[in-house]
Amino acid sequence: MTDAPKDRPQVLRETDDEARALARRLLRSARSCALAVIEPESGVPFASRALTGTDVDGTPVILVSSLSVHTRALRHDPRASLLAGEPGKGDPLAHARLTVVARAEEVARDAAGRANLRERFLRRHPKAKLYVDFPDFAFFRLVPERAHLNGGFGRAYVLEADDLLIRSPAVAALAAMEQGAVDHMNSDHAEAAGIYARHFLGERDGDWSICGIDAAGIDLAAGDRLRRLDFAAELSEAGELRGVLARLLKQARENEA
Amino acid sequence: MTDAPKDRPQVLRETDDEARALARRLLRSARSCALAVIEPESGVPFASRALTGTDVDGTPVILVSSLSVHTRALRHDPRASLLAGEPGKGDPLAHARLTVVARAEEVARDAAGRANLRERFLRRHPKAKLYVDFPDFAFFRLVPERAHLNGGFGRAYVLEADDLLIRSPAVAALAAMEQGAVDHMNSDHAEAAGIYARHFLGERDGDWSICGIDAAGIDLAAGDRLRRLDFAAELSEAGELRGVLARLLKQARENEA
């Protein structure tokens, strides 16, 4: 169940699979987000920008400096929300965006899973290698509690945390093999990323590579561009990955032939 | 004096005129902003996107629907902040952005100045004509209290409200003549907007027009593009406008000759 208020105006649409898929795509393809936190000294809601990635279970992750207002705020009060979805061309409000209401959890330096999270984040944001290990930088997981999708005028939906997260039992096994699978695809099947991006996401040509693999899909990057290709269904075991990636490639090639 | 906390980490730079000018430019050229408010039912900081303009005194203005979370929130608790500055290409954090901590004031339908504010907003956002007069839409002025500028890595500044607002005694007189002056420039000096955009803002050619004039500068629009040209100094009386616009045009033409 969602915690959304019961007395909200009745302009929300029934949340359907299309809305859920759009919400996941917005969140999983965000390079940065606008973050809202409570400023400790004043209590005011404070908006700022943060570099964004996702953990292997779909939880959004930010990399922030202790010297910033938002980091001090999150250490004082973990309530936060993030806004994903850039306005782009045309009417800024015609572009879909997603507000995720979340609870921030700082990732300890010695936490299990931090090494994988760090590698995954750096594949998405290679320039962050310059400062990720500075002592004042930290990762926070922004654990979703609910979300509000605005798909454009008159298209508002409320979502639950489960609509955004990856609940597959294969999450941990895939995390353990993620770096190896990414390296294998980008070296032995270097053409695959570009084929996925072109065929399934309508992208133009570019120097595409895979920067993330999890139980729900793959992250594709070409320079500044970041796109998310979600699988038709989450993998239920890690061993399915090879077959799914091969079938997607075969399907794209057949359709393009 | 700013209300910023005294115990913040000492990584702020001394606020100089260059930082102030950048902050004003970010705020005055925003088409939309990320807004942070306190959600009434939950108390969580809630981030969303809102269509943005400025009033004639530099105060940021948003046009919002009563059916949205942020409007309900602002009517319940006027504390807010807005984030101006889009990430654009390359590293999202290399792009300057500005957080303005503000107090929201709803603009009453019969308020003095609302007609001018509405016209000014619609010149900036012509598509908003479709819904601006719907009964559930309202303007809010987000009166700045202080601001935080992040001009890219290691370039953080705190600003005061006065750094962002236009304090000229000519504000009201210019508001009264704004629509006429805009119409005059766009019809009798139709080439001026493009010359200003190209010469002073480095813009490429396009169908530029002037969409706002105030005591501190002019707003220029070409399709989706919006640029702000601030005057070297605020006008101290409305009668100076014609001479300033003519001198800028002359200067651009001489430099381009």
Which SSEs are present, and which pair or pack?
Two copies of one chain form a homodimer.
Chain A: H1 17-28, E1 32-38, E2 45-54, E3 60-65, H2 69-76, E4 79-84, E5 97-106, H3 114-124, E6 137-150, E7 156-160, H4 171-188, H5 192-201, E8 209-214, E9 217-222, E10 225-230, H6 241-256
Antiparallel strand pairs in A: 1-2, 1-4, 2-3, 3-6, 4-5, 5-6, 6-7, 8-9, 9-10
Helix pairs in contact in A: 5-6
Describe this structure in words.
With 257 residues, chain A is of the alpha+beta class. Chain A is 29% helix and 30% strand. Chain A contains 6 helices and 10 strands; from the N terminus they run αβββαββαββααβββα. Chain A has helices at 17-28, 69-76, 114-124, 171-188, 192-201, 241-256; strands spanning 32-38, 45-54, 60-65, 79-84, 97-106, 137-150, 156-160, 209-214, 217-222, 225-230. A 6-stranded antiparallel beta barrel of chain A has the order 1-2-3-6-5-4. A 3-stranded antiparallel β-sheet of chain A has the order 8-9-10, sandwiched between helices. In chain A, a hairpin with a 5-residue loop joins strand 2 and strand 3 (60-65). In chain A, helix 5 (192-201) crosses helix 6. The radius of gyration of chain A is 18 Å and the shape is globular. Residues 1-9 of chain A have low confidence and may be disordered. At the A-B interface, strand 1, strand 2, strand 4 and strand 5 of A face strand 1, strand 2, strand 4 and strand 5 of B.
